[in-house]
Specification:
Strand content: 15-25%
Order of helices and strands: HHEHHEHHEE
Strand order of the largest sheet: 1-3-4-2
Shape: globular
Helix content: 40-55%
Structural class: alpha+beta
Largest sheet: 4 strands, mixed
Oligomer: single chain
Length: 165
């Protein structure tokens, strides 16, 4: 509980120190303004989902189902990361709010990754990271959005969005 209080305090301080501009003044990148997104899943996407669900089953947690609305947000974010050339959680508040508005999401969290060539390596890296593992093992999460996108050099970018409905 003490660890949670420290994390919340640090995050709150980061938020208060970094947000000096009102939200309506912040320019949202074009990747997040796309109206209709065609959601298609790759074999790699399905492998990641299977590995995450296998891990959740091993912990006696419910299996996550794919939520297309969350995948739409993941697709937009992957395009943003490819365009930036870096993995990030930039504009997470936009994805979170979009899901709260579109599907009445109660909570939203995400894992991002970059450069992994296979699902097992990616999921292992996430499971070896406390914050990423906590998202995967969150017992309250019900659904999952996923996107994998290659950049021009063939490097993979990953966004996984976990949602509680």
């Amino acid at each position: 509980m003490k660890k949670l209080a420290i994390i919340i305090t640090v995050l709150l301080n980061m938020f208060l120190m970094s947000c000096s501009v009102q939200e309506d003044e912040i320019e949202i990148p074009n990747e997040y303004k796309v109206g209709v997104v065609n959601v298609e899943y790759t074999e790699l996407d399905y492998e990641i989902l299977e590995l995450i669900n296998a891990h959740r089953i091993s912990k006696d947690l419910r299996v996550l189902t794919i939520l297309n609305e969350a995948s739409k947000e993941a697709i937009a974010h992957n395009q943003y990361m490819v365009n930036q050339g870096a993995s990030s959680h930039d504009y997470f508040y936009v994805r979170s709010q979009n899901l709260k508005d579109a599907v009445n999401a109660i909570t939203v969290s995400e894992n991002v990754g970059y450069g992994f060539s296979n699902a097992q390596a990616l999921v292992n890296a996430w499971l070896n990271s406390d914050g990423h593992r906590e998202n995967i093992e969150n017992p309250n999460v019900t659904d999952f959005g996923i996107s994998t996108k290659k950049d021009a050099e063939g490097r993979n970018y990953f966004t996984n969005i976990f949602v509680r409905l």
